[in-house]
Amino acid sequence: MSGLVEATAPVTRRVRAYFAPVNRTAGVPAVFDAAQLGGFALDAPPAPWIDLGWCSGFARKCATKVAALRTGAPAVAETQVRTEVEATVALEFESWGKLQMALAAGSQQMNLLVPTAGAAANGSGGVATAAVPLAAGSTAASLNVGAAASFNIGDLVAVDVDYTGQLGFVGSGVSGAYVASSAAVNGDINYVRRISLNVARVIAIANGALQLGGPLLAGAPSPGMQVSRLLGFVDREGGSWFQEWSALFVMEGEQSDRVIFHYPRLQAMQGAAESATTLAAPLERLRLTGAFRALPVKDANDGETVVCFRSYLPGAMRAV
Amino acid sequence: MQNAKDTFYTTLRDRLATVNPARTMVVRSVTRPAVLVEENELPSDAVPVDAFRLRWTSLKVDPDGALPLVTMVCEIRYATDGSSGNGGMDRGRLLAAMDAELASALSASPRSAVKTSYSTAPPLPLNTNVFWGEVTFNPAAVAGERLERVATLEVFCYQEAGEL
Residue B160: closest CA among chain A residues belongs to which residue? Predict the structure, then answer.
């Protein structure tokens, strides 16, 4: 019982999503090469890809328009041209993590930093308490804050640089905001930590070091970074910010085949939204709903402008 | 289809043995993981407790496609009287433990296995996979001091050319 087997339609049960940052300053997305990395283990994506977990309701939509070029009388379609290239993708994230929320928010996603006592109330959080400096020896998963620092197991922390008047894209690892002027952000020293995606949960404390539940997205802290405690996350309807990310969606086939969708540049095309699924009334499960528009890149092989790559890796010994 | 049934059974047996190596049973004087396929054993009215019994029920073949797609329903039956040391008062806990073991084995990734022919020695791997859907746990039934449950799921496979 060996030899070639007829190719069958892929049978999949769910979609796994992965994120990689886009260098907003340089305008360079992350590129996934399915020829080199297409067979990666779903639980261990290759750098710089970060697991976003399973998602549901995955729907790709092609909005590319094709028109006929007609000649003669009566007019006959002689050939065709693409008059517009556009694609969108929609999905629901199964988990509410910082990254998932930041991507699905549709606008800016911020950290609710612990406010100072008596801070004036503000929708996205009041003036934050002073951040804690990092000592030498910190890593992506361990923050050396010293024994005197007041942190507890279970704390959420944001790790990033002070705001000292930077203009343009800010946020370590992933750009989380664009600062047009220092005045616009009140020169707030904690502003970068407020918009940073470089967050983690403290799961242990030993010898003045905070052990994190997962590595920081930006890697080992750079000199000058400080730590702020946060209570949660907040996003807003409105604003001017569009988060942009490189996306990878993998559908694992039950016959050891694999379908991979790669969108080098995605931006949200709707505001923050949730979908509710009734578990058993009145209990409802809320999923983050995201809808994204694909932006173009040039394929290095031929210079073509494209917005999405679909790769298919057939199972072993399948006819092609 | 027999290859798919055999493959699913061996896969489930091995996974359950990994989840709880202590769950064993003696069948014809041989100690083995406490999983059996009813149609492969001597007919008996006795219900082995603290063991999983597989029963193949309905069958559907979809011939439209490059390969016929076979859908088989598998019932997995299990029961417990609790332990005598506890006067059977732990039968709910023991049934919950079996629920958890079965759920763990069936939901572990991948939810597929290479279809294998066990009619030869050594077994011969074939070219397609057996895969299965979500398991449905039916309500527990009370029969005297015994708690019983039937879980069902659909098992899928492609019928390969020349395979019987």
Answer: A5
Hey, CA dihedral for A313, A315, A320, B1, is it positive or negative? Answer: negative
ipTM (interface pTM): 0.85
Global pTM? Answer: 0.91
Per-residue pLDDT of chain B (164 residues; tens, 9 = 90+): 999 999 999 999 999 999 999 999 999 899 999 999 999 999 888 899 999 999 999 999 999 888 999 999 999 999 999 999 999 999 999 999 999 999 999 999 999 999 999 999 999 999 999 999 999 999 999 999 999 999 999 999 999 988 87
Domain ranges of chain A: 12-106+242-313, 110-235
**Cα Rg of chain A (Å, integer):** 23
In A, minimum Cα distance to B112 occurs at: A254
Domains of chain B with CATH codes: 2-19+31-158 (3.30.2000.20)
Q: Which of A6, A252, A317 has its CB closest to that of B67?
A: A6
| B22 in contact with chain A, both atoms CB, cutoff 8 A | no
A198 and A131 in contact (C-beta within 8 Å)? no
The answer to whether the Cβ–Cβ distance between B160 and A7 falls below 8 Å is: no
Q: Are B155 and B11 spatial neighbours (Cβ–Cβ below 8 Å)?
A: no
Phi, psi of A250 (to 5 degrees): -120, 130
Task: Select the residue of A1, A42, A316 nearest B117 (Cβ to Cβ).
Answer: A1
